[in-house]
Amino acid sequence: MTAIQTDGLTKRFGSGESGVLALNDLDLTVEEGEVFGFLGPNGAGKSTTINILLNFIDPTDGNATVLGHDVRSESKQIRQRTGVLPEGAEVFERLTPREHIAWVEDAKGIQADTDAILETVGIADAADRKAGGFSKGMQQRLGLGMALAGDPDLLILDEPSSGLDPTGMKEMRQIIREQAESGTSVFFSSHILSEVEAVCDRVAILSGGELAIQDTIENLRDQNEGVCTIDLEVESVPDSLGLGDVAGVKNIAVNDDEITVTCESPTVKVDVVRTVDERTAVTDIVSEDTSLETLFERYTGASAETADGGSSADGDGGEAVEAEVPA
Amino acid sequence: MSTLAVAKRDFLNVRRSKLVWAPVALYSLFMVLFFYGQSSSSDPDFHMVLFSLLGIGSVLVIPLIALVAAYLSIAGERESGTIKFTLGAPIDRSSVVYGKLLARSVVVIAGLLISFVVGTVAAIVFVPDMSIAYGDYLRFIAITLLYAMGYVAIAVGISAATSARSRAIAASISFFFVFNIGWFSLPISPTEVVSFVLEQLGENPDNYQNLTELVFSLSPTGAYLNTMDFYMPARIASQEAPVSTPSDPFYIQPWFMLVILAAWIVVPLAFGTWRFGKAQLG
């Protein structure tokens, strides 16, 4: 049985000229027991999809099932078996974490090991403090704790790492892995590729409301193996780099004293360095495996790091990949 | 079961809100003042205190208590996003509305009962000579609680039908103005309008007096005011309106006022449940 299945799922907000097509004909299949990453920049339609799966909003067209239940007519059965972490939701400010978990127990009619859950998500020492003063990260941890209560068959996590520091993100990934090992299906959305890459069996990349690709991480890597880049910092850029003659060079971009070369395979990198070194003094070499990053950018038309709000975004490099090889 | 789960959590949450208790303190204060006022009278009259309480409670304090306690019950959750935690659990949307009504009613009723206890203690301390008509007092309290529940249901209904705090506030204030101030104090109140129209049509005032009385009672506050015959002696009640007689049509009989108050619980709730049931919680 599939954990999540959508057929031609479409959502349009508003009508006529001013309407926005948030989701266009989405076909998605998440198998039971897998960790599925739902990837895309902000506004790609990730939350819209999740809102439809949980019956928060009605789709304009198409169907979806979760754990074999129709999302509209059998939503309650779905939510009985699913743990949900909504996107950026505030928790109940006048209740303690312990009371939050107790509420889930009441609502689902289950018993949960509250102490163990709060220990897992790392807020055991705040178990009896009102959540009103919690930081974004602590609220996120509490939200995850509520999702975990009652050992659900499926976890739907909308941007689970938002508000978390790097340690928190790592712990979140660890929890997701443990849940997956115990047989829970996990569906989580993110705009950060590295996060998805580290834990997911399969990913779907969503862009502008449309499914760009749906595949395993492994296949994506294989598919994209041909592309890798090397950055060379030089004292001065010579008139002719001579790289056009080097076999395997796909693209060259020059930015001040930095030369970014896209190669067909990693073995070409060394030829690139030798060739450039013959003509000018190389001061620094940066070689990163950015293949999936590049892939993400290609499918979404945005730099993954920019989407992350990071400061070191290299937008020029991303565009250069698409450009023609200069002679 | 899910209604109770919602009610339990919501009660825990809302009883810790100080704002909810402020109007209750106000009602207690008025009660103490009214009883204290009788202490300087040579002939303290318990029913005059009830009369004052009815006046201040009906047009101001009870609606205030109930609206403050419940106007954010659902709209507030939609604004903060906690509604997604609530509905991420296997809870029907209607259960959210009923659970909220239950929790907020319990808070309001508890607050009012505390006020009545405070008032009764004040009566015994300040005016020991005054005899308290306990039967009338209990009927007054019971009907006041029914009126309060009507306003809680109105506030929950408004909250269920609106998507944000600002709209819930606007709708609550509008309701208060139309059904309280507009209904009784404006020259274009519904009773005046009905009278004017019928007069222009050449009707004899004797023929539509009952009708205007019904129009008056269609607002929750009007119905509450017209329950006086249950707990007020004729000497006081007759100052405000003619005391009802068995020959009056049923729709202006005191018991029918209770029906109207009950309808003010059912109708807003049904409206809110219907609107919230098809709300898009994006």
N-to-C series of helices and strands of chain A: EEEHEEHEHHHEHEHEEHEEEHEHHH
Q: Major sheet of chain B: size, sense and barrel closure? A: none
Given the C-alpha coordinates, what overall shape of chain B results?
globular
Separation of termini of chain B? 26 Å
Percent of sequence in beta strands of chain A: 25-35%
- Rounded to an integer in angstroms, the radius of gyration calculated over CA atoms of chain A is 23 Å
Structural class of chain A: alpha/beta
Encode the helix/strand succession of chain B as letters: HHHHHHHHHHHHH
The greatest interface here is: A-B, 34 and 26 residues
Major β-sheet annotation of chain A:
6 strands, mixed
What is the number of E strands of chain B? 0
Oligomeric category: heterodimer
Strand content of chain B: under 5%
Percent of residues in helices of chain A: 25-40%
Low-confidence stretches of chain A: 303-327
Overall mean confidence score, pLDDT of chain A: 85
In short:
Chain A has 327 residues and is an alpha/beta fold. Chain A contains twelve helices and 14 strands.
Which features does this protein show?
heterodimer; A: 327 residues; alpha/beta; 6-stranded mixed beta sheet; 4-stranded antiparallel beta sheet; 28% strand; elongated; B: 282 residues; mainly alpha; 13 helices; globular
What order do the helices and strands come in, and which of them pair?
The complex is a heterodimer of chains A (327) and B (282).
Chain A: E1 2-13, E2 20-31, E3 35-39, H1 46-53, E4 61-66, E5 69-70, H2 75-81, E6 82-85, H3 97-108, H4 114-120, H5 136-148, E7 154-158, H6 166-181, E8 185-190, H7 193-199, E9 202-207, E10 210-216, H8 217-223, E11 228-234, E12 249-255, E13 258-263, H9 268-279, E14 282-288, H10 291-300, H11 304-307, H12 315-322
Chain B: H1 2-14, H2 18-39, H3 46-70, H4 75-80, H5 83-88, H6 93-126, H7 134-161, H8 165-184, H9 190-200, H10 205-217, H11 220-225, H12 234-240, H13 254-277
